[in-house]
Write a structure and sequence with these properties.
This protein is of the alpha+beta class and 247 residues long. The protein is built from 5 helices and 11 strands.
């Protein structure tokens, strides 16, 4: 049987352990209480702001091509050179400045053709050259895309892509919209706080979302942002996630 002195010594050994555990538990409870108090005394909301803009630049892209057999490859390049002269003449007739024109080199891709016996016929290639026009004259680019039939009438195998419309002042516009989005978030937070009998305090944090460049009246937003280039008239929208203190 243990003596009273041994029991007393054992209690002294365990006393620091017990006190340490109590301190840890108290700290956890205190931290939790502080976290809960902080989380219940803030309100996070999303604010947004948008504005209608008109595209201030446009891009036109198209390409012309020739399909030739390997035995006529030299002739094919000569035909492409003749087509390029017609393309440049067409662009000049549309009053497009040379500085706004980019013309690629000729690309050559092999076509794989087979006869009825599944034997490959004489090698054949597609020669292609791309034309790009970028200008701040949106109406001129729109008109250019509508006149390419004139090239086809002259024997040029010319195909076009839809005109792409851009707004180049987007970075500056985004800054002003962020300010309006925060004001919208503040107004929403104020209304939500009133419903619980509280008022909002200072702004604790704010994080901007992605920029959405939509065609006018469109609602097709994306989590990763979107940039619609199909329409001249656009709507630029930004969102902000903001947290306000409550009192």
């Amino acid at each position: 049987m243990k003596s009273m002195e041994e029991i007393k010594q054992q209690k002294l050994v365990w006393l620091p352990v017990i006190m340490g555990s109590c301190l840890i538990i108290s700290a956890i409870i205190g931290a939790y209480a502080y976290y809960s108090k902080d989380s219940t005394n803030s309100l996070s909301v999303t604010g947004s702001a948008s504005v209608e803009v008109v595209s201030d630049s446009a891009k036109f892209t198209g390409d012309f091509s020739r399909i030739v057999k390997i035995s006529n490859l030299k002739i094919g390049y000569e035909e492409m050179s003749a087509d390029l002269i017609l393309v440049r003449s067409f662009l000049k007739s549309q009053e497009i400045d040379d500085k706004n024109i980019t013309i690629s080199t000729i690309s050559m891709n092999e076509n794989y053709n087979y006869n009825n016996n599944n034997y490959q016929t004489e090698k054949e290639y597609t020669l292609k050259q791309q034309v790009e026009v970028f200008s701040s004259d949106v109406n001129k680019i729109t008109s250019l895309a509508q006149q390419t039939q004139n090239l086809i009438n002259k024997g040029v195998v010319f195909s076009t892509n839809p005109v792409e419309y851009y707004y180049t002042k987007l970075p500056e516009l985004r800054v002003s919209l962020l300010s309006d989005a925060i004001k919208d978030a503040q107004a929403r937070a104020s209304k939500m706080a009133e419903a619980t009998g509280k008022r909002i305090g200072d702004l604790k944090s704010a994080a901007s979302g992605v920029v959405q460049v939509l065609s006018a009246n469109s609602l097709e937003v994306s989590d990763y942002g979107t940039y619609d280039t199909s329409k001249i008239n656009k709507r630029v929208m930004v969102t902000v996630r903001a947290a306000f203190g409550l009192r």
